[in-house]
């Protein structure tokens, strides 16, 4: 399928023949219900279609969970928590999670193809990054399930109960793993809502849950739009809310749960500075800048969307970036050569276009990589804005697309001040060959994840999350486990 | 004939200085038996905002001090409080209506609480941080850092000195600076404690003490965009859910109300920290 997308190459660069990954590995149903209490059931809301953003073709029909369906899912999770899951030994909970990790590995290619089809991200990313990390996440937290005494809350910590989890569309299955793995290891049960544009892999994951023979109700997956998620996090019988998404929605959730005693983890927006000093290893830095902002079409909350480059190497860096971006291949997400896939939705594409127009109006110099945009689907060519002022909206607001804003600095102090000049504080990058400079600058950056001479690295053992308005709580590592536990005395 | 005493003027403590409220307002503080004790400053919104400015100004310096240095400064508070023990015993005895023995036990506990938290300064990072064994050629480490400026509503009941210390000390451990609204009914020992801060190497602006009405001041602090965290421990009698909703506008970290005086807890230290994870590339050799 999706033969109507011609792979494109940059001018003067190597020509590549199409190398599409086969979709024959998929066994999709025409329609998917809600996964509640171990079974697929009909939703009572109005169903919607999930489409491929690369072709705009319908993939499957998806159920919408009504408030009554949310009730049923939470009730199933409550029963499973109180009667089964919280009473299971840690080692048995761990064994179920190990099973899931193995099943994900066994069905890795299928999941990767489904993810690229539904999300639009290049198959080489879903295949080499998303899905392997999903398996790693379950494997890591599986091992924690019988070691909760070491989570930092003293002996015999207890699960919180039912976790309401709402995840975004940029890393659909990976965000599911970030949410479900630690919750289950700690003895909680979950009701998870994937994003409405990317529900497919969560529903295939529900099949994996069945294959793993997990007790019914431990994992419930309900689909729908924002209203379904809002109903879920406000449900009175939910003990924990975990949300990844926009700061605006995160704020609404923080307000909705005020006074309820629900424990909350929020992983929200970002506007990361990627700081390149003049003593940086320049070849690696160029690759890192490209990876930092063009990985996953820039649909990354921790994307290095503000390039802060030392003034004396500014011209060289921008020129080399343009050269490198000219070689990126935009097109069919399922093509193994593709570097830049489709923008996830028409709505997101409109936002990227709008903010890019604003960038131009506010006086920044726009450069767009030369590439052929396919006729159908949602696409945005890699774009650089140079000479961006710190007050410009493209330097302040999260664009969530393949758009890089370039600013300059002269001294480390100026770089730090500019990097921290944002209400966000999720991530940052530092490029220099001088180790002591890395340590000093890393100390001063107000961000939860800092990559030195690398960018966009993730690992289940490594805590991830933001400062300031990028949210609170951490996912990954012991910190991510503790977010689903309470001390024995509480 | 007995000597006529010199009563103290109780003022606010902002940025290391002792100003009156800019509003010119004050309120009567009465003893347990109803006698007049003092006029305390009735802090205004402007005072609260000035206090936040002072706290913000002092934050990077306090956070940038070595953990060993912060530990010594907090320990120094205990030393000076010990030296002025009699004054605090008298003050608490009259304002809370306690015997000297009971008041003395409260002061001792407050002193020991400073010592306990002082000791955490250069240790808690080893408990709440981690080295992370990531699957790749990276040195990866997570360390706690202070959240920033913390606004606190101190416990409002008796045991006013201990309540005040039990919320302020843990917030300072990691390098946060604080704006704290003292007990409305029992504010005197908080201001006397500010005199201890002023003479015990606590940099000006690290602790800012407001006296007055928590109901009036807390909404301004909860909604202030330059406040990073909100400790509502003593706000149980206020409309604290509204305060928490207001704090959500800038996604402040919030501790919910707790009756009485909170016990010593590492959780209170960690609650006002942010975990920073740094990935350092290793060369392939």
The class by helix and strand makeup of chain B works out as alpha/beta
CATH level-two architecture of chain B = 3-Layer(aba) Sandwich
What spatial order of strands do you see in the largest sheet of chain A? 14-15-16-13-12-17-18
Helical content of chain B (DSSP H or I, runs of 4+): 40-55%
**Main sheet record of chain A:** 7 strands, mixed
- Largest interface summary: A-B, 41 and 33 residues
Pick out the low-confidence regions of chain A.
none
Strand order across the largest sheet of chain B: 7-6-5-8-9
How many domain regions of chain A?
2
How many structural units, i.e. domains of chain B? Answer: 1
Query: In CATH terms, what is the fold-level topology of chain B?
Result: Aldehyde Dehydrogenase, Chain A, domain 1
Q: Would you report the number of β strands of chain B?
A: 10
Shape of chain A: globular
Rg over C-alpha atoms of chain A, rounded to the nearest angstrom: 22 Å
Number of strands of chain A: 20
The CATH class of the largest domain in chain A, by name, is Alpha Beta
Strand coverage percent of chain A = 15-25%
Q: Give the CATH superfamily of chain B.
A: Aldehyde Dehydrogenase, Chain A, domain 1
Mean pLDDT of chain A: 96
What's the overall geometry of chain B? globular
3D architecture notes:
The complex is a heterodimer of chains A (490) and B (285). Chain A is an alpha/beta fold and 490 residues long. Chain A folds into 2 domains: 31-268 and 469-486, Aldehyde Dehydrogenase, Chain A, domain 1; 273-460, Aldehyde Dehydrogenase, Chain A, domain 2, CATH 3.40.309.10. Chain A is built from 15 helices and 20 strands. Chain A is globular. In chain A, 61% of the residues are buried. The model of chain A has no long low-confidence stretch (mean pLDDT 96). In chain B, strand 6 (177-181), helix 7 and strand 7 form a beta-alpha-beta unit. In chain B, the strands form 3 sheets. Chain B has a 5-stranded parallel sheet with strand order 7-6-5-8-9, sandwiched between helices. Chain B is of the alpha/beta class. The N and C termini of chain B lie far apart (88 Å). In chain B, helix 2 (67-83) runs antiparallel to helix 4 (100-120) and helix 8 packs parallel to helix 9. In chain B, 44% of the residues lie in helices and 18% in strands. Chain B has a single domain (45-281), classed as 3-Layer(aba) Sandwich (Aldehyde Dehydrogenase, Chain A, domain 1). The mean pLDDT of chain B is 97. Classes of the chains: A alpha/beta (490), B alpha/beta (285). Chains A and B meet through helix 8, helix 14, strand 18, strand 19 and helix 15 of A and strand 4, helix 9 and strand 10 of B. Strand 18 of chain A pairs parallel with strand 10 of chain B, so a sheet runs across the interface.
